[in-house]
Amino acid sequence: MREYARHEVRRSRERARYDVETVHAILDAGFLAHVGFVVDGQPFVIPMLYVRDGDDILLHGSIASRLMNQLGEGVPVSISVSHIDGLVLARSHFHHSVNYRSVVCFGTARRIDDGEAKATALAGFVDAILPGRAAESRPSDRNELAATAVLRVVVENASAKIRSGGPKDDPADRALPVWAGVVPTQLRYGEPENGEDVAGQAPPSVRRLLQRQNEVITA
Amino acid sequence: MREYARHEVRRSRERARYDVETVHAILDAGFLAHVGFVVDGQPFVIPMLYVRDGDDILLHGSIASRLMNQLGEGVPVSISVSHIDGLVLARSHFHHSVNYRSVVCFGTARRIDDGEAKATALAGFVDAILPGRAAESRPSDRNELAATAVLRVVVENASAKIRSGGPKDDPADRALPVWAGVVPTQLRYGEPENGEDVAGQAPPSVRRLLQRQNEVITA
């Protein structure tokens, strides 16, 4: 089992995972990361779209963005991705929790300057939002590529943390007349809304997304 | 309109908001924050449960947690909360986006030591996960309070950023035979699962949650 270099989890160690498969699966299940970096000793955490590329993470933004320019200078970054899977309702306040899958990564960002690599990355961001969508829409042209900064974050170490299952109540609390259990949560997709001046049915990428979602529910 | 001291948004300024009502509403709609801080020049971003208290944000963790102890020393933190509202599918890769509501805050954390204030805070975390749940479950006892560190982050400045609506395609792309629009997304709650050794129906807090959710859907 291949592992990332460890960023050791110290609290709730039983929830920690370092294998590449687990870390990749959590990263691949999302498209919004929270990216942290330091400017003059001050921490910043900014939500950004991302896509995984091998063991690395790609970010993008406007070429005119101060943030992109700062990050592209090779500063250390921390990237966190979290999915909420349920509300964990215990008999006591103390044991309330949430079920989640999260990854915390550490690495260094570098700008990608090669045009072809940038175009591939930008298609990757589109497919991270919705698999199959890049092939359905117009790729970036030369001007759009020039206007976009793409960063490759080489992930130097990473850890995943997963909580699942029901509440862990104190034995002494089991007699309390309090309901305990889990309310599962999930990011759900609703009916597609056509854009202005757009006619016709949603494309295969959207139909597959909704179909997969319904299969999960009826399974 | 009361505003937070501005952490000025530089990119996509038209999406920025600084009024307290907007910032509070985004914070109140969630319970998971990404908290950033600096240790020896290295940024860390960690997912944590939170609850808003007035203009401040409360965090908690184990008294034995290195993280809690570091944060409690009054170091600067950045806290980001994001909600994803939809996939924005444009005719071009370039204009793909997501609809979201996010807040980025900056402040300083201080430990709360008063037992009563800690108990109130811990009830607040429970109600942040599920409104009304604190009153249904056992409050923290003296040992649990002693085992829990609670931090108050005094928010010194904050900004909200909101994107909503459809894709903003280039006029030249309107003729392309590409569907464009929005797939709305929402964190949805599923059927409650009883904990081990738990009999009976889910409590009013859970039933209200599911009822509110269904009202929104049929509205």
From TrEMBL, chains A, B:
Pfam family for this entry, one: Pyridox_ox_2
Kindly give the InterPro entries that the UniProt entry links to this protein: Pyridox_Oxase-rel (IPR024747), Split_barrel_FMN-bd (IPR012349)
What SUPFAM superfamilies is this protein classified in?
Answer: FMN-binding split barrel
Give the protein's recorded name.
Pyridoxamine 5'-phosphate oxidase family protein
